């Protein structure tokens, strides 16, 4: 097992270069669990290396903002700036996490299961 | 008899006159000779005076001001003194003075370097510590306003660290940090991070080359100095263009600015400094001290890359070219922490057996990152990974030992495996696989009819144990096919 990389290794390219000095995302719709999905048909040319890596990550499926930040080894607030740009340019769409109310409750499932078992 | 007297007198007079004339002539010759000799001596004394004045006024100051032993010193003024004792004495004065100056300079340089080095190392350490603290804060605070302030502090701190690092290197220290091999693009952007006008730097062309670990920091530092020069000597509304080019036996970083350029004398001076052959005297960097070129020269000579600034940029300013030989380059490391977020990508192996059967073009991630980097064996569940309970959601573990979540697929949130399956991949399954699935289905229905406890032969209802090698256990196939992007 590879030991976790030393902390300072991520310090080569500083976050202000990644965001080009910006700190406010263009939209304020992201939180840690917002799900992000990529549109595979958008060209990746012209994107900065971080945005390109972000797109490559998201092309594999939906990811949460927190996961993206972890993979890119960038602060969450910096990732939000990048995500804002990519959503603006149409590379990404976001989806709020599935609210728990939409999921069937465990109790109902248990009742259904009990009912089925009683019948069979 | 009396008329003989005047004759005698005349003779006498004649003789006397002749004698006087002869004497006069001789005297005159002697006088001329003496005069000439006096003139010569006067000339000689004046020449020596001149020579002494020249020594004090020109030659000794030249020794004191000489930038190095290779600079030619002015010789004696008058060739006529060559070989005389006087010239020898003068030469010994010169030699003695030169030695004294050299000794004093060496001593001063050494103590200045030692003092600067020690204090700069301390500052470097502080800058580094502060950078870690700033990075921690950036991670911790999620407020854009706080982030803005932190970015500003971070930027100032990076420049501060670079200055300290440059001076320390000039004083004979090592650049300081050991980094993993990093892509050339990151190296250039890392250099961009350390200058004031980072927003004016445009990095074009990305190439798949990385700089070897030991050269990362020196190259970053050298490129940062060049970028800083370029940005400082051009108008604030112009950009500094950086392009990366793979060349025959290495790679080049080309930095163009649209500034004022350098005249011939400046170029010559820069070339001499960049060659790194001239020892750098920290006490003679000018006021304000010009660290840039001497630092680059020291680094280039020590690490074996070369820098030239003697071309004109197409934008009118200076074109600086950093040439990195192949020995300092490596292919893009795929498992460096900074380069690959995808090593733990579960789909890389999960889809392993299927990729060849599909006709989709490989995703960029797969092209850049080979599917199984040997350095991360734990990140990928191998074919013989045990089928753990709940294996449908846990597809391996992180390097920290935590279970990994299977990524949520769009459209897989409500898995309906039956609908898209037969239409999409009817020909991909082998006969054995079909049989196994049918068997699983049959066992499941049987188990459901018999009762809700496992059958006595120990088989569990549901998917059969021991999935196909290379395929993640559980619901992986269904989720794969439910993914429109795959």
UniProtKB/TrEMBL annotation, chain A:
Domain of life: Bacteria
Pfam families: DUF742
PANTHER family: DUF742 DOMAIN-CONTAINING PROTEIN
Name of the featured protein: DUF742 domain-containing protein
Lineage of producing organism: Bacteria, Bacillati, Actinomycetota, Actinomycetes, Kitasatosporales
Automatic annotation (TrEMBL), chain B:
Principal EC category: transferase
MF terms (GO), sorted A to Z: protein histidine kinase activity
Annotated stretches, region: Disordered: 334-486
Biased composition (Pro residues): 457-475
Record's keyword annotation contains Phosphoprotein: yes
InterPro entries hit by this protein: HATPase_C_sf, HATPase_dom, TCS_sensor_his_kinase
Bilayer-crossing regions: 6-25
Domain Histidine kinase/HSP90-like ATPase: 219-326
Catalytic activity: ATP + protein L-histidine = ADP + protein N-phospho-L-histidine
Protein name as catalogued: histidine kinase
Organism lineage: Bacteria, Bacillati, Actinomycetota, Actinomycetes, Kitasatosporales
């Amino acid at each position: 097992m590879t030991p976790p990389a030393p902390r300072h290794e991520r310090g080569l390219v500083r976050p202000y270069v990644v965001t080009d000095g910006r700190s406010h995302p263009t939209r304020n719709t992201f939180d840690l669990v917002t799900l992000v999905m990529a549109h595979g048909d958008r060209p990746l040319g012209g994107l900065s290396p971080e945005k390109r890596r972000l797109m490559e990550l998201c092309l594999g499926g939906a990811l949460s903002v927190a996961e993206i930040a972890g993979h890119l080894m960038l602060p969450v607030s910096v990732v939000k700036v990048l995500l804002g740009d990519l959503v603006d340019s149409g590379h990404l769409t976001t989806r709020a996490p599935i609210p728990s109310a939409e999921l069937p409750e465990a109790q109902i499932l248990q009742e259904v299961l009990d009912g089925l078992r009683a019948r069979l | 008899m009396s008329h003989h007297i005047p004759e005698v007198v005349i003779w006498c007079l004649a003789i006397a006159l002749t004698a006087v004339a002869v004497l006069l002539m001789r005297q005159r010759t002697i006088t001329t000779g003496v005069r000439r000799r006096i003139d010569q001596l006067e000339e000689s004394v004046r020449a020596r005076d001149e020579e002494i004045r020249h020594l004090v006024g020109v030659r000794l100051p030249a020794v004191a001001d000489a930038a190095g032993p290779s600079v030619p010193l002015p010789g004696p003024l008058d060739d006529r003194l060559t070989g005389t004792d006087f010239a020898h004495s003068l030469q010994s004065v010169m030699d003695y003075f030169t030695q004294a100056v050299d000794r004093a300079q060496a001593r001063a340089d050494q103590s200045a370097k030692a003092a600067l080095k020690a204090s700069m190392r301390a500052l470097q350490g502080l800058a580094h510590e502060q950078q870690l603290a700033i990075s921690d804060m950036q991670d911790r605070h999620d407020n854009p306003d706080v982030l803005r302030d932190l970015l500003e502090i971070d930027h100032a701190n990076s420049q501060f660290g670079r200055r300290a690092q440059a001076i320390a290197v000039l004083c004979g220290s090592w650049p300081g940090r050991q980094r993993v091999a990093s892509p050339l693009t990151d190296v250039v952007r890392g250099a961009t991070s350390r200058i004031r006008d980072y927003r004016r730097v445009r990095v074009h062309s990305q190439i798949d080359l990385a700089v070897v670990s030991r050269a990362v920091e020196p190259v970053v530092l050298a490129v940062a100095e060049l970028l800083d020069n370029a940005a400082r000597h051009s108008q604030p509304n112009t950009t500094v263009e950086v392009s990366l080019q793979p060349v025959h036996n290495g790679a080049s970083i080309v930095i163009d600015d649209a500034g004022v350029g350098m005249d011939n004398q400046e170029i010559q001076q820069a070339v001499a400094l960049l060659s790194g052959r001239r020892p750098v005297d920290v006490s003679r960097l000018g006021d304000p001290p010009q660290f840039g070129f001497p630092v680059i020269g020291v680094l280039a000579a020590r690490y074996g890359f070369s820098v030239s600034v003697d071309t004109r940029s197409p934008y009118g300013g200076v074109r600086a070219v950093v040439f990195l030989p192949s020995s300092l380059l490596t292919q893009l490391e795929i498992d460096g922490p900074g380069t690959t977020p995808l090593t733990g990508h579960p789909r890389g192996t999960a889809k392993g057996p299927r990729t060849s059967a599909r006709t989709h073009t490989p995703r960029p991630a797969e092209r850049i990152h080979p599917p199984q980097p040997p350095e991360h064996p734990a990140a990928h569940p191998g074919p013989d990974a045990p089928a753990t309970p709940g294996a449908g959601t846990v597809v391996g573990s992180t390097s920290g030992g935590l279970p990994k979540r299977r990524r949520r697929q769009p459209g897989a949130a409500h898995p309906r495996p039956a609908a898209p399956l037969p239409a999409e991949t009817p020909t991909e399954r082998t006969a054995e696989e079909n049989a196994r699935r049918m068997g699983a289905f049959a066992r499941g229905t049987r188990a459901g009819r018999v009762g809700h406890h496992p059958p006595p032969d120990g088989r569990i209802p549901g998917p059969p144990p021991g999935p196909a090698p290379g395929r993640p256990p559980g619901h992986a196939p269904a989720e794969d096919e439910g993914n429109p992007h795959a």
